[in-house]
Design brief:
This protein is of the alpha+beta class. It has four helices and twelve strands, in the order H-E-E-E-E-H-E-E-E-E-H-E-E-E-H-E. The longest helix has 15 residues.
Length: about 200
């Protein structure tokens, strides 16, 4: 499963958003290297000014000293959950997106060991949890949010896993990874048969 994903992501040409002047961020989509791989997600602290209490990938804004956004994603993952950069086998970038806060976000896919010491940064991270890739491949959405963006409509799923709500930009990045890396075929530009919410 992971070898196919690796080849697909490496062959993928990421969509680049032309957004000069916008602040940039890098996030890490960390996938564990096990027969049934899992994706590592965080619940952000309620004390943060943006995305507080939301599920997100480890990551954050680019610092002036960061050599590139991949470096940003790895640095932030280390700061937020204690994941050492040398443990991450970076596969490559996915499509860039602009958050509702006007930040251009680029996700990087990385394969990480099944077991490593997780040290959540209490000032930023409430909890760290894992979701099996298989969960997203079955697309067990709770509802669909329509987002009008760049002149077209996106129908983005909202998932619930063990009480965690996974929605918005994080869900969109997950679906794009499922489609690109695992050939899931989850439609993002046509309405879903289930309950839609604007």
């Amino acid at each position: 499963m992971l070898e196919d994903m690796r080849m697909r992501v490496m062959q993928h040409t990421p969509r680049q958003i032309k957004a000069p002047g916008l602040p940039e961020a890098g996030v890490l989509i960390a996938i564990t290297s096990q027969p049934q791989p899992e994706i590592i997600l965080t619940l952000r602290s309620q004390r943060l000014s943006t995305h507080s209490g939301e599920v997100a990938f480890p990551g954050g804004r680019r610092d002036p000293g960061d050599v590139d956004l991949c470096f940003t994603a790895l640095r932030e993952a280390h700061e937020e959950i204690g994941l050492l950069p040398e443990l991450v086998d970076v596969v490559g970038p996915m499509d860039s997106l602009v958050s509702r806060f006007g930040i251009k976000v680029t996700p990087y896919v990385g394969v990480v060991p099944d077991q490593f010491e997780i040290i959540p940064n209490a000032s930023e991270i409430e909890e760290v949890f894992r979701v099996p890739v298989e969960f997203f491949l079955t697309d067990p959405r709770e509802m669909t949010h329509r987002i009008d963006y760049e002149g077209r409509s996106w129908y983005v799923p909202s998932y619930r896993f063990n009480g965690f709500k996974i929605w918005g930009l994080t869900a969109l990045m997950l679906v794009e990874l499922m489609n690109t890396g695992f050939d899931a075929g989850i439609a993002l530009h046509t309405p879903h048969d289930g309950h839609n919410k604007n």
